[in-house]
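Q: I'm writing a short explainer about HD family phosphohydrolase for a general audience and would like to include a description of its predicted shape. Could you first generate the structure from this sequence?
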Amino acid sequence: MKVKTSHLMPGYVLQKDIIGKSNRPIALKGTELTEHQIQMIRKFLIDTVEIDEPLSGNKPSKKVKEQTEEKKAVDNIRSASIQDKENGYKYFLKVYKNVVNVFKEQFLQWQQSMPISIPDLRNAIIPLLEELENIDANVIFSLHHYARSDEYIFHHSVATSLISAFIAKEMGYRRGEWIQVGLAGVLCDCGMAKMDTDVIQKQGSLTSEEFKNIKKHPQTSYAMIKDLPSLTSGVQLAVLQHHERGNGEGYPLGMTLNKVHPYARIIAVADSYHAMATTTCYRKARNLVNVIEELHISTIRLYDPDVVNTFLNIFSNWLEHSKVVLNNGITGEIVFVNKQEPTRPIVKSNDSDDIFSLEQLPELYIDKIIG
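A: Of course. Here's the predicted structure. Afterward I'll give you a sentence or two in plain language.
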């Protein structure tokens, strides 16, 4: 039977898949709805859904009850109203911008030699990280659009936090751990507050001497947090090691991958991705697909393969059914993504309905992802 989403209750079972505006399933047939899933469906502005007769005379199962209570407990610590949350991505963006502003305020204080306030930072970043349970990869692959080049460092720190936590979550880390990964991500560049402002806001390429000084920021960041008792050793090591690379040519210590903390390996990928995808004072943003290719090609040499493969899998699932423009001007839809070569998918042309594989046509590539 058809039911308005405003009338849904935990325990109802979906009779059909719920398909979003992007033609991707939001929830699958046979799903026994929890309060969390109902809120998610409403955020996607779905008006009605088809359900089977409610289980147990409208009574939710024990599992649903537990999930509902957990969701209520999480909601109680969030300051925004349910009405705001039902705006979905608008709510997320609102919280994101607020966290960027909080981070900016703290960063300016660090420049004046004030200490890091972990409670203030936690109070801002944790509710944002918790929203990762409510959103999908669309947000992750949109973060680079939000950053202004003159405020890059603030956006980059928050975005790196989100992307790192999202990857950790997809890798199967427990909730408490991926929150810790996100906290490490937002702190990784705190030492940039001690760098020369003219250098971090410089228009154009850095000199070798300027870059040499910038490369000191992991050690500076670590020095700022190492004595804070509220941070775990994993967070502290991630801050110090996030620019180390698999071949031992990273910095500041030139460590090989086997000596680098797992949190730092995750942040290394998130940090590199967002930096390449975003316009900064000294560099234009690169094509998103080109960034993914760079990560893919560099995996063995620079990054943890498990982390990169997880990120590529996230990208592949997101890319499928996306609308794209190719370098020859053809527009089309991605109909299949080979996860071994995620940037060379099969595309269906909007003009001719022809279907062709970019793996077999090396002269073609995705120029833009438009929806």
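A: For your explainer, you could say: The beta strands are 2-4, 18-19, 25-27, 48-50, 323-326, 331-336, 346-349, 355-357, 366-369.
Q: Perfect, that's easy to follow.
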